Structure formats: structure tokens, C-alpha cells
Amino acid sequence: MPALALFFLSLVKPLVGRILVALGIAAVSVVGINTAIDGVKNALVNNIGGLPADMFNLFLLSGMGQAIGIITGAITTKIMIVQATKAFSFASKNQA
After folding, report:
1. Alpha carbon 18 to chain centroid, angstroms
2. Does a structural domain hold residue 17?
3. Considering the domain boundaries, does residue 96 fall inside one?
4. Is residue 9 part of a domain?
């Protein structure tokens, strides 16, 4: 019985290690890219805040404030989907 347990452990251990490494790489890259997108978003919002009042009101009435949030959210979501796909494909590769 202990031999069977050691056999299953030897099968599962490399797979668990690969999954943890893949998820760690994906998490680090998503956090880094998310920080960069937040920096761009904050710079854009700060620059828009310098507009004259009438132009700023027109900007907000046209829905551009919401558009900035939607676009940055879409970019972040796309990056997370790509990273998750890479992580799972990396974890499922054979150890040849």
C-alpha cells in the first residue's frame, strides 16, 4: 500500500509544482500590467482635469469618463484571460 501512495505522489508532485509556478508567473505579470494601466489611467484623468470648465462638462456629458473606465477594464480583462490561458497551457505540457 505505501508503494501505491508513493507512486501517486510521484505522479502528482511535478504537476502541482508546474501549476503553482505557472499561476505565480501569471499573477506577477497581471499585477505589473494592471499597475501600468492604472498609471496611464491616472495620468489621463489628471490631464483631463486641467481642461476649462465648459470643455470638461462636455467631456463628461459625452460619456468619455465612463469610456475610459470601460476601455481600461477591457484591457485588464483581456490580459488576465491571456495570462490564465498561458498558465494552464504551461501547466499541462508534458515534462519530456
Report:
1. 19
2. no
3. no
4. no
